[in-house]
Amino acid sequence: MIKSYDFVPFLKCKVYHESGNLEGRIPIKVKVLTPIHIFSGHFRVQDNGKIYREFIKINGRPVIPGTSFKGCVRAIAESLSYSCLQNSSRDGRMPENKWHGGQQKCIICDMFGSMGNKSKVQFNDLMAVNYKTEVRGIPRSFRPHPESNYYMENGKYKGYKFYKHGINGIQPSGPILCEFVNAGSEFEGEVIYRGLTDEQVRLLCFALGLSGDIQPKIGYGKPYFYGSIEINSQPEWADKAREYVNECDDEVKKNISALIRILNYSNALKSYEG
Ligand SMILES: [Zn+2]
Q1: Rounded to whole angstroms, how far apart are CA atoms 107 and 105?
Q2: What residue numbers bound the domain in which 239 lies?
Q3: What does pTM read for this prediction?
Q4: Among residues 97, 112, 107, 217, which one has the least CA distance to residue 157?
Q5: Burial of 90 from C-beta contacts in 10 A (0-12 / 13-18 / 19+)
Q6: Is residue 274 included in any domain, yes or no?
Q7: 189 and 124 in contact (C-beta within 8 Å)?
Q8: 139 contacts 173 by C-beta, under 8 angstroms
Q9: Residue 64 φ/ψ, nearest 5 degrees
Q10: How many angstroms does the Cα of residue 57 sit away from the middle of ligand 1?
Q11: How far does residue 85's CA lie from ligand 1's centre (Å)?
């Protein structure tokens, strides 16, 4: 059996001393590559009497909530920077060089917020603009609560875990019925930032996938190749994303390459036997 995930090794945590004053608004277009499901918290009943998990909606229209979107982008940004792990001090399985103490901030805490420290990036809900939904069953072994975001080796966490892509059509089916937004559907919205440094804007744009190098995954069923999305914006933001790659040091570059191997959709698996 092929592993459906791989990892990006931890970089050590560094305190971030810069303070920025850049503001901006990044228009976001999402194209769904493999069906996505984000649970509304409500169960619905089909005409045939079967119960399914509803996709989250506002006024009847599917949305990718800003909180889900932020979590997805933050995890990517963490893996590509000298970020902390908030819980590293309390868990012996975490490396010790991944925490800056409560009084300090790393580049990620400064951007996305931490305890007592407001986020400088605002992720608004992404609204479906052109979409089809479908109720489909996914395997029972999928977990309602996502498993650890970290990759473990010999009892120690080694890095961030990311699930690989699989082309649309190879997703295994099963008895757990969920409402999916189908491949080909589109969502739109925006990300707003205030008080970032240029380095942080570049990191944000790269983590959003605006250079085209990475396509994130969102929602449930990631181990089964659901939830692949492509994110686009205007060319100026794609340029900012590329600048992150050009300006970063060799250690970060290595992680960028590792993440591209996992999250570039052109590397999507063509078949899967679970
Ligand atoms: Zn931090």
Answers
A1: 7
A2: 5-267
A3: 0.94
A4: 97
A5: exposed
A6: no
A7: yes
A8: yes
A9: -95, 110
A10: 32
A11: 7
What confidence tens digit (pLDDT) does each residue in 109-148 have?
999 999 888 999 999 999 999 999 999 999 886 554 555 7
Ligand 1 centroid from CA 97, angstroms: 11
What's the structural domain count of the chain?
Answer: 1
- CA 224 to centroid of ligand 1, rounded, Å: 31
Quick one: which H or E segment has residue 78? Answer: helix 66-79
Ligand 1 centroid to Cα of residue 207, in Å, is 17
CA distance 29 to 78: 22
Per-residue model confidence as pLDDT tens digits over 48-95:
999 999 999 999 999 999 999 999 999 999 999 999 987 655 667 888
Note whether residue 272 is domain-resident: no
Which residue in this structure is represented by tokens 């009847």? 60
Give domain status of residue 147, yes or no: yes
Q: How far apart are the first and last CA of the chain?
A: 6
Is 205 part of a structural domain of the chain?
Answer: yes
